[in-house]
Each structure stands twice: as C-alpha cells, then as structure tokens.
Amino acid sequence: MRRLICALALLAGLVGASPATAYDEADLRAKLAREMRLAGSATGAYVRDIDSGEDLYSLRENRVRVPASVEKLYTTSAALLRLGPAATLDTVAAATGTVDGDGVLRGDLYLLGRGDPFFGARAATRLARAVRDAGIRRIAGSVIGDEAYFDRRRSGRFGGYDGDLGGVL
Fold first, then answer.
1. pLDDT at 20 over 50
2. Which of 5, 71, 73, 123 is the Cys-Cys partner for 67 at CB 3.0 to 4.6 Å?
3. Are residues 132 and 63 in the same domain?
C-alpha cells in the first residue's frame, strides 16, 4: 500500500506540477513505466491529458483494487469542482419544542450532519457552545444524530475494509 501511495504521489508530481509540454510523450511513458516497475505488480496507473482527452499511459488500469487513501483525491476534486473552494460542510444543530425561562429545551435537539470531514472534538465543542449561546442549558428530550442528508449505504464495495459512511462523524 505504501508503494502505491508513493507511486501515485510521484505520478501526481510528474503530471500535475509542471506543464504537460515539459516531457515529450515518449519520455513521459518511459518514466512512468520505470516508476511503475519499481512500485510493483499490485499497482496500476492511468494517465490522460485533461485538455486533449488523449490517453498518455496505462498499466493494469482495469484491475479491481481495494480503494485506499488516494480515493480522497477523487472525492476532494469532485467536491471542489461541484461546490467551489469557499464551500464548507457544516454540522448544525436544530431543535423542536421550546426553551423555557430556565434554559430547558422541552423537545429534541437534532445534529444535522452534512459530511464535514473535520467534525471532531473541537467542532463538537464549538457546536455545544453555539447551543449554549442560544440559551439552551439542559435538554428534556433526546439528542438525535440526523444523517438523512445522505443515503442509507454505510459501507463501500469492500465492506470489511471500508470505514463507515455517514453525515454525522
């Protein structure tokens, strides 16, 4: 796995860091072939010129593999293209019921997850402060993690390997 990540990082550096004209096609193919040999037989690659659509290199590109951390590149790229660089994926709180004079929420508090990859202890603390700042001191109902923003699928194709999917992390 480490070799695959190193090879992909190297490929990304070769293809993404400099203009495609920096290598002629024969040199690029030779360099990629050399690097892929070093990466081992469990690896594969597919390189396409994004402007022309021309396939520049492929090796074992159709072999099924367990997705690894490199899959985050596709997810991040898709999110950036679709949502833009200024977008945020927030987890927010919403309540049903009323808050009485003592700050007791007589209803439920919902945590509405939207897939924030950074939601952890710090974000939970900020969210709790926001709830407190809204005047809620105690909840006389339930706290419900709402993942309805996403579908019900909770693992990927390789169920034993993949982490759980969901809107509330």
1. no
2. 71
3. no
